[in-house]
Write a structure and sequence with these properties.
Elements: E1 2-6, E2 9-12, E3 17-24, E4 32-38, E5 45-50, E6 57-59, E7 67-72, E8 77-82, E9 91-98, E10 112-113, E11 117-122
Parallel strand pairs: 2-11
Antiparallel strand pairs: 1-3, 3-8, 4-5, 4-9, 5-6, 7-8, 9-10, 9-11
């Protein structure tokens, strides 16, 4: 499956952004989908994941209550609604697809990756 992330940008602290990840090539609903992020100073880290049907979700502790992951299988699109953004949320955000069942917070658990979209949060 090919993934294309978009929606990043420069915002002030406290603002919102919605990231999108468009999938093509294989049946989108077959995959658990996830969002990861990376800065130059850190390894790529897990942010959130969602099951194929959207019923179950998982979040990194620091984004709980501020970020919401969702998907539209009819549109082959994954979303990440990010509210109350903080400077520490600034990173390149990647979407990823996982063929296996069950959640994974490890980059090794995902089989396909998008190219990343940059989120910058200013004070």
């Amino acid at each position: 499956v090919q993934l294309q992330a978009s929606g990043g940008g420069l915002v002030q602290a406290g603002a919102s952004l919605r990231l999108s990840c468009a999938a093509s090539g294989r049946t989108f609903s077959n995959y658990i989908m996830g969002w990861f992020r990376q800065t130059p100073a850190k390894e790529r880290e897990f942010v959130s994941a969602i099951t194929w049907n959207g019923v179950s979700t998982l979040y990194k502790d620091s984004v709980k209550g501020r970020f919401t992951i969702s998907r539209d299988n009819a549109r082959n699109t994954l979303y990440l609604q990010m509210n109350s953004l903080k400077p520490e949320d600034a990173a390149v955000y990647y979407c990823a697809a996982r063929r296996a069942s069950g959640f994974s917070q490890d980059t090794q658990g995902y089989d396909y990756w998008g190219q990343g979209t940059l989120v910058t949060v200013s004070n």
